[in-house]
Design a protein that fits this description.
Layout: E1 3-15, E2 59-72, E3 92-106, E4 109-115, H1 120-123, H2 138-141, E5 145-154, E6 160-168, H3 188-191, E7 196-207, E8 210-217, E9 231-241, E10 244-253, E11 263-277, E12 283-298, E13 315-327, E14 332-342, E15 375-388, E16 391-401, H4 405-410, H5 432-437, E17 445-446, E18 449-450, H6 456-484, H7 487-509
Antiparallel strand pairs: 1-2, 1-16, 2-3, 3-4, 4-5, 5-6, 6-7, 7-8, 8-9, 9-10, 10-11, 11-12, 12-13, 13-14, 14-15, 15-16, 17-18
């Protein structure tokens, strides 16, 4: 197995929201705001800003810029990097995300909007196959929006929020925005689980240390529904003190396109622990995280366990862990970590963008069918330079296995895999047989799209084999004529047969 190594240098800037108190009609004693009893800016997935220069009574503005330069040591000829949801091009400076928006807070009305211009506007929608169901091109409708929801705050318990729209999921612990994370390139566990949901959430705070958040959503990181039923989930977040955060996400849905009787279960559970906090020292802070994910699909030709040839096992198991050290009053930080996944059926694996393939189109070069194996591991080392609370410079070196590395370095096509995914409708499966017959020997093109040209040596062997087969069939027909036709008519019959074959060859050649 080849090893994919990349070096990423990222510059991120963000002006993030401040905390605005909800106006009250009467001077009643206020209950403590959730999770305001300690400083949690050390958590991965949380912004480390403590104030916002764009804050006002009604709206707290936010502006994010994420620019990175990535160099893959596999040197892909087309500069494309696959398997990641954060880095996409090698040897180029790219704008990953430019986001502008913020939070609305007026009395009990609340809302949030954040744009996504740059690479995210292309790479995130292509991982969602739900827009192929029905009309109106949902991927284009939501392409430039990462968050957009409105809601209402109820003054019950320690607060209840009801929001509807697109919101972040935090399944997989890391934030969708790299500025908030310890590592620029998260582990497979985080990259292959949903970044957002489109639906309704209810945030219930029984106390200032606990949040219970049910979801009713369209599907697993999807703009629309894959089938008729929605997805359901719940998030539980518990922070007993300023040094520990425990997060659990549970999900149930039908998220296989065109297979309504296939159900998905998933659990994502994380703990973050700050085990050192010494302000003023050279090494002033240290923390760690540990995440475990497990899930499966059942029905529709697959099973969670004890699978067979007729119903293969289709499940997801993964973990990731990170260690982070802060130095010199949190100006510098070092993070090391990694993880591994095992996903038979590849139902959560990011599809490589081979010849422009998307989650809806699929590709015969990397099928996502029941029984297809996928095991992967990753490791990374990240150094953060944080001169101001709104700016981070992040050199990082992630390493992970890349089975496509040797093929893409040589610029040669992988052998087609004829086992089409049975999880997609027949109309959306790639027509590899039609393409192989329509190859142009000179240009290697078909219907205006670039496809790999065949190996000339292999083509010569195939043509020679076809000639031998045709000669054998012709001799067989001649033997049949000799056995069945009288001697005086045999010569005339063979002559007519050869003339007919010659005409057929002329027609095919023309």
């Amino acid at each position: 197995m080849r090893v994919r190594k990349t070096i990423t240098l990222a510059a991120l800037a963000a002006v993030t929201l401040g905390t605005a108190a909800v106006a009250e009609d009467a001077p009643a004693p206020k209950k403590p705001e959730p999770f305001a009893f300690a400083d949690f800016t050390w958590l991965t997935g949380n912004p480390r800003t403590t104030e916002s220069p764009l804050d006002s009574k009604v709206f707290t503005g936010e502006f994010r810029v994420d620019v990175n330069f990535t160099q893959s040591l596999n040197h892909p000829q087309d500069h494309t990097i696959g398997g990641s949801s954060e880095i996409f091009r090698s040897g180029e400076v790219q704008l990953t995300q430019l986001g502008a928006g913020g939070d609305l807070h007026w009395n009990n009305v609340r809302g949030r909007v954040m744009t996504q211009f740059g690479m995210y506007s292309q790479t995130t929608p292509r991982n969602d196959a739900s827009p192929t169901v029905g009309q109106w091109q949902l991927d284009n409708a939501y392409r430039y929006v990462s968050e957009a929801y409105g809601g209402y705050h109820f003054d019950a318990l320690n607060g209840i929020n009801v929001d509807a729209g697109i919101f972040m999921s935090y399944v997989g612990l890391f934030s969708y925005y790299q500025f908030d994370n310890w590592a620029y390139q998260p582990s497979y566990v985080s990259s292959n689980t949903p970044w957002f949901f489109n639906g309704v959430r209810i945030q219930i705070f029984p106390s200032d240390k606990l949040k219970i958040e049910p979801w009713i959503v369209n599907g697993w990181q999807s703009y629309g529904k894959f089938n008729d039923a929605p997805g359901f989930g719940v998030q539980i977040l518990w922070r007993p003190n300023g040094s520990i955060s425990v997060l659990g996400n549970q999900y149930y849905g039908t998220d296989t396109l065109g297979v309504s009787d296939r159900k998905r279960l998933h659990t994502d559970d994380s703990v973050q622990w700050k085990y050192l906090d010494r302000p003023g020292r050279a090494l002033d802070k240290a923390a760690m995280t540990f995440t475990v994910d497990a899930g499966c699909e059942y029905g529709g030709g697959v099973s969670c366990r004890n699978g067979s040839a007729a119903s293969p096992s289709q499940y997801f198991l993964g973990f990731m862990t990170y260690q982070r050290l802060w130095f010199d009053k949190d100006r510098y930080a070092v993070t090391v970590g990694g993880g591994a996944i095992n996903n038979p059926g590849r139902y959560l694996v990011l599809l490589p963008p081979i010849n422009g393939a998307t989650a809806a189109s699929g590709t015969p070069y990397f099928t996502e069918a029941p029984g297809n194996e996928f095991r992967a591991w990753d490791a990374s080392a990240t150094f953060d330079w944080m001169p101001r609370q709104f700016i981070t410079g992040t050199p990082t070196c992630p390493t992970s296995p890349d089975p496509e590395a040797s093929r893409r370095r040589a610029g040669t096509p992988a052998p087609p895999d004829r086992s089409f995914p049975i999880s997609r409708p027949i109309s959306s499966r790639p027509k590899i047989a039609t393409r192989s017959r329509s190859w142009s020997r000179s240009e290697g093109r078909h219907e205006g799209r670039r496809v790999p040209a065949p190996d000339p040596r292999l083509l010569r062997r195939v043509l020679a084999l076809r000639s031998r087969v045709r000669a054998g069939l012709r001799r067989r027909r001649e033997r049949r004529v000799r056995r069945r036709v009288a001697p005086r008519d045999r010569a005339a019959r063979l002559s007519r047969l050869r003339v007919a074959e010659a005409r057929e060859v002329l027609v095919r050649t023309a």
